[in-house]
Amino acid sequence: xxxxxxxxxxxxxxxxxxxxxxxxxxxxxxxxxxxxxxxxxxxxxxxxxxxxxxxxxxxxxxxxxxxxxxxxxxxxxxxxxxxxxxxxxxxxxxxxxxxxxxxxxxxxxxxxxxxxxxxxxxxxxxxxxxxxxxxxxxxxxxxxxxxxxxxxxxxxxxxxxxxxxxxxxxxxxxxxxxxxxxxxxxxxxxxxxxxxxxxxxxxxxxxxxxxxxxxxxxxxxxxxxxxxxxx
Length: 231
Known about the structure:
alpha+beta, six-stranded antiparallel β-sheet, 6 strands, transcription, RmlC_Cupin_sf, transcription regulation
């Protein structure tokens, strides 16, 4: 991944496959029902997974104030998807047609972004040592107390830091991390059962429940949509 920034805003959509965007605020994974947003000036890097069909749309700086002022992910409605495909597939045949279509899309995206697939990253060295360990091995089943002993911090201190720095519990952060990795495995064609084991769930049922709660659809439905959306 190459870190870079833009003077304009940037919307990136994987019409097929999945993408991840990393910024100083953490990482978002966007399957085909999500759209990443990066405002002007934010350093970021993208990574793509599976058989992707990526659409990139620049948003002029003067229009960026209509959307949130920080990197985020939006849900993609049927209307937003069709507008994105039209803006990135077609040649403009009438003056102002692109501007009108883009205005419709921005109106649709003004609603609050989707926070569920955002994985924030810490600044505290002890907490970063814990999250680095879990990034390296999402299937690690150790408790927060065991991780604390490895990094020289108490379970209570780490629990407080998770809430203070990342705005969520240790369990929630690890669940989202595992779902991120699960999305990548599923996009690359691994089965639900294989993915559950590789990402640390004790059984496929637990994985399906956790994945559905975060992503909004079951792993099986996600893979079926991937097949249907493949270019």
